[in-house]
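User: Teach me something about this protein's shape.
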Amino acid sequence: MQLAALGLVSYFEFLIDNFVHIPPTKIAAEIGDVPCAFHIMKSEFLECAPEELKRYGKLIRTFVRTLKPLYVSDHLARFNVHQMNLPIVAEYSYAKTDIDRLSARVGQWQEALGTQIFLENFPSRTTAFAAAQPEFLVALSAKSGCGILFDVSNAIVASVNGNVKLSDWIEVAKASPHFHVAGFRKVNGKSGWLLDSHDSVVTEDTFEFLSACLKATSVPESMTYERDANLNIEEIAADLRRFQRGCA
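Assistant: First, the predicted structure itself:
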């Protein structure tokens, strides 16, 4: 709320999985007139049983009705393999032959939620699937009716780790009314491998790429700044002021 009082943020994004144990009316009373958005972390909507998907969708729908979020977003990623939980979230393969099956699954998830879902691009760790991601996201959005939540920083991470051309992401940016931006860092100080860490200031190349995206499209309806660790208010405020100047 301190950043809101400074006029640096105009809405909050909830990692809604962490709040489903709280009555939505209580959350509404706490945030007052400040708008919010939802980011779903653990729906596992590509893998979970249909009845479980309906149950979780029904739960989140109660929060959607009460809090009226600007958007509801999720991840196109794998959390399980052969019913075994993965230690870290894995990238999807983006096979074109899967587009119909995935589109149907996205449709089921949107129906369960009672609203459109915005899928976030993945911060690729390897070159295995990364190059196919931008085109696949745009195609899936067109076929299923879902939206895209464009994470500018994830695109840079994918470009370095997955050898994806940054220019390939411009069409994704054009299709996205909602953006994410965050800091990332080199793993163990090594060059050539980035971790989507959300624990540092936004890099100069991120600001430069964001500027290129904004030149190619209109200013997004929302831009969420993510900072999960090393919560230095002065650093965060400086980043937010720079975003405000860039989007003016």
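Now, about its shape. Residues 50-67 form the longest helix (18 residues). DSSP finds nine helices and eleven strands in the chain. If you'd like, I can walk through any region in more detail.
User: That's plenty for now, thanks!
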